[in-house]
Amino acid sequence: MFRDITVSCAPHISERFSTRTVMIDVVIGLVPAMIAAGYYFRIRAAVLISACVVSAVATEWLCNAVRKKPNSLGDFSAVVTGIILALSVPPGLPVWAAIIGSVFAIAVGKMVFGGLGANIFNPAMVGRAFLTASFGMLMTTWTVPATIDSSMPVISAENKIDARTQATPLAWSKEAVKTKQGAKIVNDQLKAVFKGEVGGCLGETSALALLVGAAYLFIRRTINPHIPLAVIASASAFAGIMYLINRDAYILPLCHICSGGLLLGAFFIATDPVTAPLTKKGMWIFGIGVGTITMLIRIVGEYPEGVMFSVLLMNAVTPLIDRFCKLVPAGGKPSV
Amino acid sequence: MEVSTKGKSSFPGGTHPPQSKELTREGEIRPGPASTQVAVMLSQHTGAVCQPIVKKGDEVQAGQKVGDSDAFVSAPVHSPVNGKVKEIALQSHSVLGRSPAVIIEADTENNPPKQPVFNKFTSGFNEEKYSVEQICAAVREAGIVGMGGAGFPTRVKIEPNPRLPKETLIINGCECEPYITCDYRIMLEWTEQIIAGIKLARKASACSQVFIGIEDNKPRAIKVMSEALRETGNDDIKVVPVRTKYPQGGERQLIKAILNKNVPTGGIPPMIGVVVLNVATVAAIAEAVVYGQPLTHRVVTVTGEAIANPGNYYAAIGTAVGELIEFCGGITQKAAKVVLGGPMMGIAVADLTTPITKTAGAITVLTKEQIGRAKFVRRQTACIRCGRCIEVCPENLNPTRIAHAVKNNFLDAAESYYLSACIECGCCSYVCPANIEITGYIKTGKRLLARQKEKIPE
Lengths: 336, 458
Known about the structure:
The complex is a heterodimer of chains A (336) and B (458). Chain A has 336 residues and is mostly helical. In chain A, 57% of the residues lie in helices and 0% in strands. Chain A is globular and about 80 Å long.
């Protein structure tokens, strides 16, 4: 009567939940940011996102084929990498450059380590770092959002009206740090920064859209709040202290949080489980590290933006953090 | 006075698997099958394996001792039926693989089914006429072991021990495993017997306070127990509703929920003055002490979506799993797995002649659908380090690290992540999105470690 029964170790049931579910949730969480990108940068958004996703997926397929490994596209992680990379490049980036970044992200950022779960660095950030190093000019040319009337004066260096490109709030903030004045110009733009009506990377401009996506991830419990909270809290604290020291040179902490890649980084990049620590304590150290290094680069360093470098640096120390933050069993350490 | 049935306290971690208790929750305890043959395992407990004290061809009576051991940590086994010893042979054992058993052919004519004794207990039960020595001796002779699953000999637990004095007795009525309802039915139907057993256990262990922990998904059991205690004037025994969360019924988790104390890692509850007994165990204590009946029958929940007539049965220990399934109408759909116990910690059996033991609370027959596709095809993907296993671990361990250390044969590394502290509840495997058999690796690691230690000469 029981010809077909199987045996295996307990438990015999499992939650209906898989790696694919996690990744699809992240994609859904990124949808508001993609919509915002489409709204502000129109056809550029669609072109860049699809180019990055298609090339990421194709690269992963090719790597598996070369290594004679089973196809791993079903986990959707290549799609996530493609989208995040696309959202973190300038809207005006040529498609060929985006494709190069995407191929590098998957091939060198992930597949050479052995695929999903084995990579040390966040693949999308590896791809972006490669693009920054190779095509510095292209990676710092910012297009004005399509919704801004080009005849309106917008924040740009020397307040020149420039129809094609403009400085980002962070570039302006950098200028303020150097000249010790003009932080107010950025602070006045807070509303535009929150909505995303400023120059910047494709998916990073709209804080609102990113927060909506993050709320979805929290509701679905796809990410836990430790890393985002640590990043935002430490960045705010750093920016807040600087702001209190000199209000003309340093912009509002809220402006720092809403501009650049900080929110995308806090909710979608630093939370990549593969490259972040395992334990709660480790996650807080990691998040504080990301937030602090980002602000150090933004305020003290030479670059206007630092999320990418801070995430990559903290990725590198993740194994160390994990070793440092070993869990103690509920009953204490055994007394042997 | 209205009894509050809402649980407040619990333990950190844990999961919420689907309960699936509605299949058998309303099923009264009914007599089990009249077996023509039973196989009484000589090892049904933690500790030394019993030696058979009958020979092939011997006539045995129901309740007669058929195996015993001189070891301190052990419990004798008894025949549940009148009959003749057919042979002493190896039988499939759910945990040990193959293990010796006394196989008894039942006398088909002279075998009245054993009746439970719950209706003989009244609310006026007084434990004063039984001495501590009498209680301990009766518990030992009846072969009572922890019936919740671990099977630790109960005498060893309740006996006075000057080195580890006990002060708190916790009665475990949580039954956190999905599907199982045998303890729930016992609490509803055998209430007076349980209270009598609690009084006896309290006297033997000299505990000053007693708590009964029941998960708040069983409000009726909480009400019935509290009301019975109030009516009999036993207000010093307190029913504590605890939150419904798996594995709330683990003794370490229950102690944490009720007393907010942690049992030391690698230690046992008496180290912090606590003894935990399952409700079925205390019912068996009452039966053994008052009526001298050995533990030969227990309530078994036969359940699962693939069973025709799921229910709770008072079955002879030694009945084959397949016989109980047939007795319940056999299977209706395509059964994929037969599990001795519940789906979280139970052991899948391949051989349906495997007899049930003192610790078997349930037989769960799962369908492919219940198991889920991922678990059924057993395709594991790479760990994405999401940390869900850490979040749910009730012992605050790092399951993924232990599992991967074992997988790569680094037992030292596994030990450095406290491999031995794992209670094998299965929460980590249950939540793992990569479908990694984390608990399976940990169990393997424990076996490998034990084998390694055996090889090292003292």
